[in-house]
Please model this.
Amino acid sequence: MTTRVLSDTGVMLGRSLRHVTRSMDTIITVTIMPIAFMLLFVYVFGGAIQSGTDNYTTYLLPGILLIAIASGVSYTAFRLFSDLQSGIFERFHSMPIARSSVLWGHVLTSLVSNAISVVIIVLVGLLMGFRSSAGVLAWLAVAGILALFTLTLTWVAVIAGLGASSTDGATAFSYPIIFLPFVSSAFVPTDTMPGPVRAFAENQPVTSIVNTIRALLEQQPVGGDIWVALGWCVGVLVVAYAFAMVAYRRRIA
Model:
């Protein structure tokens, strides 16, 4: 059974990836906004922002990557909603394939397409002055955290795609998530914020994730932030996956 699920998921992944490669504008669109934010904050606002570091691009990059991922997963909801509206799900379910493979094809496509966007943004960051002394293990840890964050948000996107009644409704869920990095340590240290804003910023998931990635890239101790980051991601992932599977069963019943 496991072999069959993996095989069917591979087929669904190939199908979904072909759709992405035929419309590379989705990846381009996802990368343009975060890169524009990076250019704006580094070259326009950077001189006025007190981040406590000499290299603001390096300080900024982790938050920019999270914004890119939050923007990118919205396309998963859009593609899933489009499949539901076109009736292709009914065709798949009439075939002898594992039903979960249909969803996993979209989820894995999100991981691949967002990984491409992350690489592009890191390369642009290097051109803008981003530097890191991190070793291979630290970079692998960063990649793992970003992959887990992508997987978590993608399953949230699956819920949106399955439950939406319109294209706008399928993608609108990503707007609050894209906004979260702006009220976190992504752009400025939280100790520069007013009391209530600082309290929110220090107790929302993006801050712990950003702090963890930043510490890894700067070869600094990650402290307890990494456990808070992993706890947020794994907790939301488990809940989102459970809700998504319930919504999926109801949709195909």
About this structure: Residues 100-128 form the longest helix (29 residues). The radius of gyration is 19 Å. The chain has a mean pLDDT of 85. The chain is about 75% helix and 0% strand.
